[in-house]
Design a protein that fits this description.
Blueprint (H helix, E strand, L loop, with lengths): L5 E6 L11 H7 L4 E2 L1 H6 L5 E8 L6 E11 L1 H9 L8 E3 L10 H14 L1 E2 L2 E2 H4 E8 L4 E13 L8 E10 L6 E9 L4 E3 L6 E3 L8 H27 L2 E3 L7 H7 L4 H14 L5 E3 H15 L6 H15 L1 H19 L8 H39 L1
Parallel strand pairs: 1-2
Antiparallel strand pairs: 1-8, 3-4, 4-5, 6-7, 8-9, 9-10, 10-11, 11-12, 11-13, 14-15
Length: about 375
């Protein structure tokens, strides 16, 4: 992803906690200064309304208008008033009059309260929380990862856990006011697993909801995912794709799923390196290759440009049948596009399609347990949000 303008590492909900970063996370982030979550949130830019004016081209006079109000950062506006050569512009956005400002403390202040009260194994979540805040566009766009040490999945043979949490963020530019979704980070390889729950989004229009109850419901979802993630991974490890019997390489597998070439190559390289055999790779390892490429080499922005690739990567783990079906359709379309008359694939292509269909048929007996587990998980989600 594009490098943020700044990063803030936090540990513990406030100054009353004595939280330290987990060893695997501290090694990744080196000796960066750590603050509490409450301090980090209050250090983020705010937005307030300011009157807008336009310049009459015939009189050169500035005329105020009530039709729009500018969003400005108040501390930067004060600095501009004191210093003519202030380095940072205070203006974020000029929205319509239906725009509702939601500042970071409005959203994450209620989360602080929930984290002090909710527990894991008898310990308040606020005592085991840690993560990172990233700023873009002068601080008007913010993304953050919030994780909980101990809310985790441990895989056999690995010393570092997959740690659960949420990724959240907001902006002042009229896109999403606030979003949050389930998230995990694999301490073994620092890969991030996004969109583990449905993304909840609040727009800049309308009344601001009760964020406290919102956070309670969302954190309950994350705990449910932690309970089931290990089972999904274990099942995916039992589903192997033998690329020696398939008409495409590992790199082409990712390309057929819609990954651009540079990501497909990185994903394939990681999957082949971590598989017991570079030609027989299980679905968990293929998923991990995809998250590796997206975590460390994705060249776009956080947000919508990343979300589609994340959903595709997650389908490799949570919907293997759908993944194989998507690859089969893409391969068939490729054959038709490459054929001379465009009406049907060649005999070799038909044989290739048959080999993919055999993989899909072999998957069928294992698909039911994936679907049952996913249905049960979604039913528990609905109960948690009720």
């Amino acid at each position: 992803m594009k490098d943020p303008e700044s990063r803030t590492i936090f540990a513990g909900v406030d100054g009353r906690t004595d939280t330290e970063l987990p060893e695997w996370y501290r090694q990744r982030h080196g000796g960066k200064h750590t603050v509490s979550f409450a301090e980090a949130i209050r250090d983020l830019p705010q937005a307030v309304e300011s009157t807008v004016a336009y310049k009459n081209p015939y009189t050169d006079e500035w005329v105020e208008t009530e039709r729009f109000n500018a969003l400005v950062e108040p501390s930067r506006a004060r600095e501009q008033a004191r210093e003519e050569d202030a380095e940072t512009d205070s203006l974020f956005h000029i929205p319509t009059d239906s725009y509702s400002i939601i500042n970071p403390v409005d959203v994450y202040g209620p989360l602080e309260e929930v984290l002090r009260e909710e527990t894991i194994d008898g310990t308040p979540l606020g005592d085991v929380m840690f993560g990172e805040i990233r700023r873009y566009r002068g601080g008007g766009e913010v993304h953050m990862d919030i994780m909980f040490d101990g809310l985790e999945v441990r895989l056999p043979g690995r010393s570092d856990p997959i740690t659960m949490g949420v990724t959240s963020g907001y902006d002042f530019f009229g896109e999403h006011a606030v979003y949050v979704e389930g998230f995990a980070q694999d301490g073994y390889c620092s890969n991030t697993m996004r969109s583990l729950t449905d993304k909840e989004v609040i727009k800049h229009v309308g009344d601001v909801r009760n964020f406290r109850s919102w956070w309670e419901e969302l954190l309950a979802q994350v705990e449910l995912v932690a309970d089931d993630l290990f089972e999904f991974i274990r099942d995916a490890q039992d589903i192997d794709l033998d690329f020696s019997d398939l008409p495409f390489t590992v790199t082409e597998f990712y390309s057929l799923l819609g990954f651009p070439d540079y990501l497909a190559e990185r994903a394939a390289s990681d999957a082949e390196a971590n598989a017991a055999s570079p030609v027989e790779i299980d679905m968990w390892t293929l998923h991990s290759g995809a998250t590796y490429a997206l975590t460390h080499f994705f060249q776009g922005k956080e947000g919508a440009s990343l979300d589609g690739y994340v959903r595709t990567a997650n389908d490799i783990l949570f919907n293997p049948e759908g993944t194989i079906g998507r690859v089969e359709r893409a391969y068939e379309e490729q054959l038709e596009a490459d054929s001379d008359d465009g009406s049907q694939a060649s005999l070799a292509g038909e044989r290739a399609l048959a080999s993919i269909e055999r993989v899909s048929d072999d998957l069928q007996e294992k698909v039911d347990q994936f679907e049952e587990r996913e249905d049960a998980l979604r039913e528990r989600f609905q109960d948690a949000m009720a």
